Amino acid sequence: LLMIRRPPRSTQSRSSAASDVYKRQEQYALIKEEKSQLPKAVGYLNLLADLIHNSMDGLAIGATYMSSSKAIAISTFIAIVAHEIPQEIGDVGILIHSGFSTKKVILLNGFVNCSAIIGTVIGLSFGKLDESVNQILLAFIAGTFLYIALVNMLPAVIQSKG
Questions:
Q1: In 3D, which of 146, 137, 95, 143 has the Cα closest to residue 119?
Q2: What is the 3-state secondary structure (H, E, C) of 74-143?
Q3: Residue 14 confidence (pLDDT) above 60
Q4: Which of 4, 29, 46, 158 is the most exposed place for a label (fewest CB within 10 A)?
Q5: What is the pTM of this model?
Q6: pLDDT tens-digit profile of 81-124?
């Protein structure tokens, strides 16, 4: 016959053991909370980067609208709107994890998104000057977008092949 032994009973009372478990759970929650909080500086840097990003998007919309092809202007607008939706969701997540309140996130993100309007006005203004100025502006915008894409994607491609 197989005999099953019970583990020896501890000398601790049940309330003391429950208290220890509760303390461990509190310590774990504090450690987890500390790890999930990003410094506020990360949030402010994200806002600055988003300000520049949205200005470039607006510049692209304005410059392509002043170009001779309206099909290019419409496709640029659709592409920018399509990539802004997931990008803004990510920005909201970063700002919330940086410790900003929901109200402050909406206010700051809305303010930063207005830089796209300023960029559009600048793009329209430069586009009115001369067709050659518009061509240079479009080349600058395309180069900026290519640079950002390569800086973000090329290291990942190289690392996956290595």
A1: 137
A2: HHHHHHHHHHHHHHHHHHHHHHHHCCCCHHHHHHHHHHHHCHHHHHHHHHHHHHHHCHHHHHHHHHHHHH
A3: no
A4: 4
A5: 0.69
A6: 998 899 999 999 999 999 999 999 999 999 999 999 999 999 99
Query: How many CB atoms neighbour CB 51 within 10 A?
Result: 18
* CA nearest neighbour of 44 among 132, 105, 129: 105
Measured distance CA(124)–CA(116) in Å, rounded: 12
Q: Alpha-carbon Rg of the chain, whole angstroms?
A: 27
Tell me, what amino acid is at 77?
A: F
Beta carbons of 66 and 124 less than 8 angstroms apart = yes
Nearest to 141 by CA among 70, 68, 66, 58: 58
Phi/psi for 54 (5° steps) reads -65, -35
Residues in the chain: 162
